[in-house]
Design a protein that fits this description.
The chain has 97 residues and is α+β, with helices and mostly antiparallel strands. It has a two-stranded antiparallel ribbon. It starts with 29 loop residues before the first strand and ends with a strand.
Length: 97
């Protein structure tokens, strides 16, 4: 499922405030954090960005975490290229043991 938090760019505007989110994670759960550049690299259409990213995650989520990271990197590179991305690309995956 998707957890939502609102706010501006981190570290840019000191007066910005961010929402909190609490979620109970269990053994086997994975938490995937990513920057908006990941969505940007998947499509030119702003209204389809998040949809494309979620569809890719649903397709790949059965993979073990190490394979999931490799598959995501391969798909992003094949879509956006690794030398000239349109935006920053960061993905962090935490797997609960």
């Amino acid at each position: 499922r998707t957890l939502h938090a609102d706010g501006g760019l981190l570290g840019i505007f000191p007066e910005d405030r961010y929402t909190d989110c609490t979620e109970q994670l269990r053994s086997g759960d994975r938490l995937i954090l990513y920057t908006d550049g990941v969505e940007v690299c998947l499509t030119e259409k702003a209204d389809a960005m998040q949809e494309g990213w979620h569809r890719m995650l649903m397709e790949l989520h059965p993979l073990p975490t190490s394979e999931l990271i490799a598959a995501l990197a391969e798909k992003i590179d094949s879509n956006a290229g690794s030398l000239a991305p349109k935006d920053d690309l960061t993905i962090l995956i935490a797997e609960i043991q």
